[in-house]
Amino acid sequence: MTAFVATRAETQNGSGEARLIALDPGKMARSFPAEPFAYRHFLAAHPLLQLDALAQLAAGMPRDRLEYNSGRLKVDQKPEETPGVDLEPTEIVRQIETAGAWMVLKNVETIPEYGRVVEAVLDEAARASGHRDRRSAGMTEPMGFIFVSSAHAVTPFHLDYEENLFVQLHGDKAMHVFDNRDRSIIDEEGLETFPGKHRNHRFRDHYASREQVFAFKAGDGMFLPYTWPHWVETGDDWSISMAITWKTPEGRRLNKLYFANAVLRRLGIPQAPPGQRRWLDGVKVALYDIARLPLEPLRRGEAMRRMLRTALFGRAANYYYGKAGKT
Ligand SMILES: [Fe+2]
């Protein structure tokens, strides 16, 4: 395998500033944001994204921003049977070559220097799609999630409620991606969500005939659109990757509707999918905004986030503090 080495011309934009990601405007015009596609990036040698820096980062993060477990998971993993890993978070990162582990550092954008990387990538993506910057492109809630995993670690089948510019930084990885318009893979109830709902979905073997596989080495990346189901496996080496995410206005609206419909389904009142009854969708979004307003300042501290999840969604909503995450 050959490491990707960018030339000076490739890593600078027209103004001579460093480029972080190589997005082709033609491909963006054809596929963004409707379809997944691959690209190259220049982040693999970034000092903030090396193992030592990530061990330090893990040591300073609130506990609920870290999730980790054994890497020996199934694609169709039952959440309650997820095997744990007996190491402290910092040691998982330092020993990732032998730990047999999988770990994610969540919301790294809350650390200013990581936040600047996330925002710079989104600004580049916005410019490559014909906008001045991320704000004028409607990209809100920029976030970063860094994945550190041992060789042959599996991330079970799931979907994410945001747009994702994924970058591979070390080692090999493959992402198996499925079309989010296929309701025979994820049905309407499967799309509905609330904080603390376990992200793993059932995976049936016959889905495999409908997958697109994106294979990555350091320097490779892909755009993964909102709620496209996927599962991930690392190759023969340990791996670092990062998801650089944001939400569109339409994605934020859908997230509120999926939440409202999940709550109503729990109360025994299943709802029509978003888009079928527009006026009712509008009422649900307005009620969501009203209910959320007084909670927002409370969510800034870990203890309060944990209490709110338990109060609103039950103890299972804090699943990543449990067995799978035990140290
Ligand atoms: Fe994901």
Automatic annotation (TrEMBL):
<feature type="domain" description="JmjC">
    <location>
        <begin position="100"/>
        <end position="263"/>
    </location>
</feature>
<protein>
    <submittedName>
        <fullName>Cupin-like domain-containing protein</fullName>
    </submittedName>
</protein>
<dbReference type="InterPro" id="IPR003347">
    <property type="entry name" value="JmjC_dom"/>
</dbReference>
<dbReference type="InterPro" id="IPR041667">
    <property type="entry name" value="Cupin_8"/>
</dbReference>
<dbReference type="Pfam" id="PF13621">
    <property type="entry name" value="Cupin_8"/>
</dbReference>
